[in-house]
Amino acid sequence: MSLTDLLQFLAAGRKSGTLRFDRGNVSKQVYFENGLIVGSKSNDPREYLGQVLLHYGKVDEAQLQAARETQRTSGARLGEVLVQQGFMTEDEVLDILKTRTLDAIYDLFVWNEGDFEFYDEEPLPTDLILIEVEPTKVIMEGIYRLDELARYRTLVPSDRSIIELNAGWTSSLKLGKEYRRILFFVEKRMTVGEICYQMHASAFHVYGQLYTLVGEGVARVAGELPEENVPKVAAVEDVPESVTEMIWSAQRKLDSDPENALLVLQKALQQQPNNAEAQRLLVEAEEKFVKHVYEKELSPKAVPTLLVAPSDLTLQEIDPQEGFVLSRINGSWDIQSILSICPFREADCLRMIRNLLQRGVIGLS
Questions:
Q1: Per CATH, the architecture of 153-229 is what?
Q2: To the nearest whole number, what is the mean pLDDT of the chain?
Q3: Residue range 136-141: average pLDDT?
């Protein structure tokens, strides 16, 4: 069933309840009340409030990190802390929460596949920030974005595309702050996927800006990163073949080897994205893995430092996500602070830091 037909069906039937979408490790919920969309939630780290605030320029990384520190000790919500510290007003927080809600839904339109379930008359979450939007308006915007993204890809083919500046580029060109920020990353010959991480932005947003820069002759597509260099779920030895066997295997390893359990469950969810038991166990495995790493291997207060000269990083086979983590290592932020601003799941980010440490790319102080 297409997303458009699905939303129209629920609107026409004036349905109330929760519409859940699953694709791999990503799960989203869209909430309905009498046929209207009244909210959404997502476990995609790119759509966490902190990342959305960074993308829209409401706070900078230092302010977000400071707010996260206060949040950890006080237990308050991030939005409340930002207001208390004077970084934002209550109205600004509410506006950005509504924007995040809609952006999470619009992103569904660019999914090529996924699984969905509708839970009829399921009560709304008590902490939901309520909006009220006609599904027809969401559909129109979603289709517009889908069409635009297809147009953008005529000049910027994929996340693996490498963009570089043309010889005629001049810094005197009148461009806005956000375009200049993208050009800063383009100058480093980053892939489109890497630029999305650095901008804390959706593919739709970044592709649109790169399309403009390429179309106006400021930049060009210099090539594509080979498919085999794109980060994938790490291989796990002796992984059972069926999803049921994978879940059993992960359950047995949860306490003794949570990292291996985590990898097995990620592989299971690649085959059955909507498997509720695998999704539940994945959250448990992530929590156990993070706890294990903090207790046995890395202190959250340890400060990473770069051991390799920036000019030599190209020899280290750094993938885009690792590159983002490395770019936030400044010799003063601790592991906990770096994780608070990264657009990745905490367990995945910790695995990257540990891997970089084991390879001698970074050290700890």
A1: Orthogonal Bundle (1.10)
A2: 85
A3: 91
- The pLDDT tens digits for 330-364 are 888 999 999 888 888 889 999 999 989 988 889 99
Taking CA atoms, 103 is separated from 139, 205, 207, in Å, by 12, 11, 15
What local confidence, expressed as pLDDT, does residue 236 receive? 46
Angle between helices 135-152 and 203-215 (to 10 degrees): 40
Residues 35, 105, 108: CA angle, nearest 5 degrees: 115
pLDDT confidence bin for 174, thresholds 50/70/90: low
Distance CA 201, CA 234 (A): 25
Cα separation, 85 vs 67, whole angstroms: 8
Contact between 209 and 178 under an 8 Å Cβ cutoff? The reply is yes
CA distances from 330 to 195, 306, 313, 360 (A): 19, 8, 15, 16
Indicate the domain borders of the chain.
3-150, 153-229, 243-296, 304-364
Q: Cα separation of 331 and 350, whole Å?
A: 17
CA-CA distance, 296 to 288, in Å (whole number)?
A: 12
The length of the chain in residues reads 365
pTM comes to: 0.70
